[in-house]
Amino acid sequence: MKRFSSTLWVFLLLPRAGVAADFDSAAIDRLVREARNVWDVPGVAVGIVRGDNVYFKCDGVRDLRTADPVTPDTLFPISSCTKAFTTTAMAMLVDEGKMNWDDPVRKHVPFFHLSDPLADGDVRLRDLVTHRTGVGSHELLWYRSPWSQREIIEKIGKVPLAYPFRSHFHYQTTMFQTAGWAVGTASQSSWAEFVHERIFKPLEMSAALTTEEAFKLRDRASPYRILDRGAPDAIPLYVMKEPDPAGSVHASARDLAKWVRFQLGDGTWNGKRLVSTENLHETHSPQTIIRMEGAAKALNPETLQMSYGMGWVIQDYRGRLLLAHGGVIDGFKAHITLLPKEKIGLVILANLQETRMNLALSNALVDLLLGLPRRNWNEFIQEQLKKDADAARERFQKVMAQHREGTKPSLQLSTYAGRYEHPAYGAAEIKLTNGTLVWKWSTFEDALIHFEDDTFLIHNDILGRPRVTFTSADGNVAAMIVSEPVGVQFRKVK
Q1: Which one, of 17, 18, 68, 78, lies nearest residue 47 by Cα?
Q2: Exposure of 378 by Cβ count < 10 A (0-12 exposed, 13-18 middle, 19+ buried)?
Q3: Is 340 exposed, middle or buried (0-12, 13-18, 19+ CB in 10 A)?
Q4: I need a surface site. Which of 111, 298, 313, 346 has the fewest CB within 10 A?
Q5: Is 293 exposed, middle or buried, given 0-12, 13-18 or 19+ CB atoms closer than 10 A?
Q6: For residue 475, which of 414, 407, 388 has the smallest C-alpha distance?
Q7: For the whole prediction, is pTM greater than 0.70?
Q8: How confident is the prediction for the chain on average, in pLDDT?
Q9: What is the pLDDT of residue 331?
Q10: E-state strands within 14-101
Q11: Four-point Cα dihedral 85, 90, 91, 97, nearest 10
Q12: DSSP 8-state assignment for residue 98
């Protein structure tokens, strides 16, 4: 059901008249409006590039309370779409001889380490930006954490590798933070300053920011998430205190259309060379194989092969070369798509967390722009998500079927209280408050609900329901194991 009446159609003629004739505006508008309504997204901004021509379609509102419409100038956080800015910055420094793709990381970031001696001795800048170091996600070391970026980078060296070095693609955010630190070191400035001066300014991305100043602007989207009532609910903004090379760029569809045109080009902008064609295209080149299994396979039925470049996912799509990257942070979803051979690019920005509308709409628009047979991508992706939800429900039911009711902790609750430590994750505290155990770690503090024996559940809207299992010997608690998304063992400090 359509929830908002406000709709904005914007045409940008650049650089010649008659741009609208290059786009089927009625079909584009219908696809955008349909996708927003199907996925119940408050507002969406779309920018479409074909050669030097740009078309914008905005639908819905940036804020449900004020009903202010989304415009091409509305600012959105693009989260992980930031990663391509970092690799483009690196490409510029490679051009200048200030770094090399295969430089040892410690040449630029002396305090960076990996826990495995072999990996630590040979890890290169290229490894950081292609997700092949073998380090697991460990997102909670940066997400909502109280630590500085340098502290986070130092902490990641204290976690064991999840996979053998260079053997496996595994998405890892802190490695891009490290790459951004290298940009600052090599340029004798900072990542944020370099991106602003060398990318935002030349491309005239006038609204783009990398700091929390973005949240103070009037024309910015507000964050929403589908919670218990099944409709978008406003949630607090997630403010990054430090500029983050892995995810802190905020930009509008108008600004990002310029970024897309630049990425589709040869490294020049308005006749001025910003980066060599060779090194720009190196960021677009396959580096690490992404196995076609799980979600990668289920959500990409028109793809045979997929890989990761440097800040871009590279795949075939219905026989065409396609590059894309998504980004998600509290209340927002971003998606950028490039079709290099056709000189077509898409920017899709939405103020709803974890929605798959962006991918569905990107596919639908690509089909339209290339004149390919239409497929109902909204319906297809929703079917895949339903299968995932059904499978998750079945797994939960199996766990609950094994749940032994009527058990109780083996020790007095006060015995579990105390300080627990992990080399990377630092200190966690278990407190006994009014007869209830409370878990406190990083910026999280939640009650522990008894599940069975010495296992408790943390109830948290962000973390889900991680299990906390205490281990003991001779009547003393030795450690606690916190399941995903933390997934580590903290040892009790005597």
Answers
A1: 78
A2: buried
A3: middle
A4: 111
A5: exposed
A6: 414
A7: yes
A8: 93
A9: 97
A10: 43-50, 53-60, 76-77
A11: 160
A12: S
